Amino acid sequence: MKKRLLFLIPIFILLVSMKPDKPAYKLFQQKGKEVKYKKLLKEALKADIILFGEFHNNPICHWLQLELTQDLYRSKKGQLVLGAEMIEADDQQNLNNYLKGNIDAKEFKKKARLWKNYKTDYKPLVDFAKKHKLHFVASNIPRKYASLVHKKGFEALDTLPNSVKQFMAPLPIKYDPELEGYKSMLEMMKDMGHATKNLPKAQAVKDATMAHFILENWEKGKCFLHYNGSYHSKNFEGIIWYLKQANPELKIVSIASVEQEDIRKLNEEYKNLANFILAIPLTMTKTY
What we know:
The protein is α/β, with parallel strands linked by helices. The protein is 43% helix and 17% strand. Strands 2-1-8-7-3-6-4-5 form an 8-stranded mixed sheet.
């Protein structure tokens, strides 16, 4: 009996020390309290605008985006509008033609500048909009004009023809260099030896343009769900700052994505990033 107990004790210790499960994600509120998905959905249903901040290559982000989209649609139906950073504003007509069935997926891919992970990560969202006849907004400034700002500053946009200016936020672009996101970007680039005062301006013109097209396609009573990189809306800055500049009364729900070794508890550094923080294990596989 004694020998049997001695044999069982190490096994018991091993079982107790093992994690009971391996969750793919956990959701936390702003201050770090763990919440269930239904809490996120409840708050999202009350929002005017939802900003889902993703990691572009993280499958959990993309899966939960689709789940949230489907659940919002069940309640909102035609009052739901979708939009994404990943499709640029000058491709809106190509996107509209695909949604209406005027061109097929192959032709859309040929005509539009789609991200390399479009097929796996964003096509399901676009196809959901197509199936349910939802408007889908291509919200981002064409990348070549963001690059122009990076090289020459906001002033370079003034030289563009009006036919091009329609694909960006109205000029002049409002800009606050003291926003923490822009300051930290500049500091990070300084540390890497790539500092340029125009780099955060290129980020800002993207944020301003996305906010502009979100507001242009939203109206009271509707719910706009926007998919963007987490950096564009974390800390309630970026897109959110521009939205609030235009309409302080908007009810906005933000989601930020983070990766950490142990997701049972939210790391202190990630608190207050957003209304909801999506914590994903560092070991999660990537889509590219």
